Amino acid sequence: MTEPVRQVVEGRRADTVRRLLDATVEELAERGFGSMTVRSVAERAEVSRATAYSYFSSKEHLVTAVFWKRIQALPPSGADRTGKPGDDVAQVVDTIARMLAAEPALVRACTTALLADQQEVKRLRDEIGNEVYRRLTDAVGEADPTALDAVMTAFVGSLVLAGSGYLPMERMASHLAGITDRVLPRA
């Protein structure tokens, strides 16, 4: 499992990282991404700024790390597989969309943070993309591979639309379900 920080952490250090990630979520909810800083997150987590920077290179890295942890915490895909690509893709998309809809401030922040041109953010962005793609690939199975590309593009586009305020968070799951149904009709 890929660590979201610059170094592998255990024990007390892992608790510090957890506090920083929790503080990031709180800062996003209260201040928004534009006003959040690594310093404000460190203060909220009750750690020094130097300690925060030893684990996270920027606020974009913090936000991307929170998002990666949320993706990692999703239930394993495939347990409820029906063998019907439309149904299985809809389940994967719904699971992820509901997780995102529960934290609108995080989604708004991710719209900017995930695009950062920083090594740590790129690494986690690749991990996130690979995990979503893996889940969708498993769900699509032997169906038309272009369907997978269409659903992945719709997923990313919906994330950007929701994060930009053009798609209400509470409509994201149904929006994605509608697109999925057109590309891979359910049984």
UniProtKB/TrEMBL annotation:
Residues 37-56 bind DNA. InterPro entries: DNA-bd_HTH_TetR-type_CS, Homeodomain-like_sf, HTH-type_TetR-like_transc_reg, HTH_TetR. Pfam families: TetR_N (PF00440). Keywords: DNA-binding, Transcription, Transcription regulation. Residues 14-74 form the HTH tetR-type domain. This is Helix-turn-helix domain-containing protein. It comes from Saccharopolyspora ipomoeae. The lineage of its organism: Bacteria, Bacillati, Actinomycetota, Actinomycetes, Pseudonocardiales.
